[in-house]
Amino acid sequence: MRRSAAFGIVSFLLASSLVAPPAQAAPQQTAPQQTAAQQAASQQEGFHQSQCPALHIAITPGTGESHAQEDPGQITGLSKGRNFVQEVAEQFDGVDAWQTPYPASAGMVTSIDKEEAQAMPYGVSRREGERRLLEHLQELLAQCSDTKVLLVGFSQGAHIAGNVATQIPAERVAAVYLISDPKRSRAIGNQTAAGATLPLTNKGAIPSDRHGVLGERQPGEFEGLNVVQVCALHDPVCSIIQGDPVIAFARAQDERSDATPYLESDSRFDQARLLASEMAMVAQLPSTSLAKVMLQASQHTTYTGERRDFTTIDGVRVDDWMAMELSRIASEVTGEHKDIEPKPADIHHGYWQMIGYPLWKLMDKLYGPKSDQAQLTWQVFDL
């Protein structure tokens, strides 16, 4: 089972003692690079002008939601919720999709449920993701002169997609959607200082003293690009108060480049060293700041998935809103017009909700909406 996005925020801000013990083996760093080269060669064979798509969607998931050896043609999307990229790619003849295969790691917190996963500092993982995504897009655009690209990223993936978007010709970029970007610039109304649109969510407007946990993008960095940044007010990854001690901690994680000392050996000792170095950094954080971030961390997982506390835009859950947005862009680029209808935000998709929602409605009808039976059912099934 794929790790939930909750591990992304824990890894990002707390870096990790909530995962497997140090005995977990870490594969050699060179293997994913060799596999990536083979994947690139395979992709190159398929880039022929006559087969080039009108729109190419590249999605980069967040921490723990991918690994370096995944098949980029298998679009798994984000950890939970609607797989909007795959859905749109299947709806339109002139659209295809690609998912960035990268470590998606933040130290010991990674997709360790996968045998191919690697543990490495956030900064190393992020730079590797940027390299792979940029190389893929440069190759595609060089061989497909009429193709436009649409970039999507969540959390660490949003950091990557945002950085890469500024390194390719703006006229080839149809749009960029960054969900919970850790480099989100401060808001100026419904815009950010970097030049992105910031839709209003049900969580409320974001004050100007809040920005991404890894600092801010340069003013005007997205000039000439159609960039949309989605951020919930209390999500500490994309909306943290200026001066919070967690910011310095997160930046230190992003700047780390010591990938290999702990990774080229399967020994318990080397794995323990990596975990210990991260725990030492966590120990330096003020307990009050750490507790506050932990309380707000759940907001990082409200964009998708089976949650009661959804983040919505115009009354539509974010992953459903993304399906509509990507469909709109695809219609504009391809000339095909297909509507993807949103699902009401109060419809849940998980097994627990499939059982719990009808049971709650029954309790509601039998005993009343404020009855103990109805309230208990609601809480037990996290509706």
Automatic annotation (TrEMBL):
SUPFAM superfamilies in the cross-refs: alpha/beta-Hydrolases (SSF53474)
Signal peptide: 1-25
Region feature (Disordered): 25-47
A Pfam family that the UniProt record links to this protein: Cutinase
UniProt-recorded Gene Ontology molecular function terms: carboxylic ester hydrolase activity
UniProt biased composition (Low complexity): 25-44
Keywords: Disulfide bond, Hydrolase, Serine esterase, Signal
InterPro entries, A to Z: AB_hydrolase_fold, Cutinase/axe
Family recorded in the similarity comment: Belongs to the cutinase family.
Protein name per UniProt: Cutinase
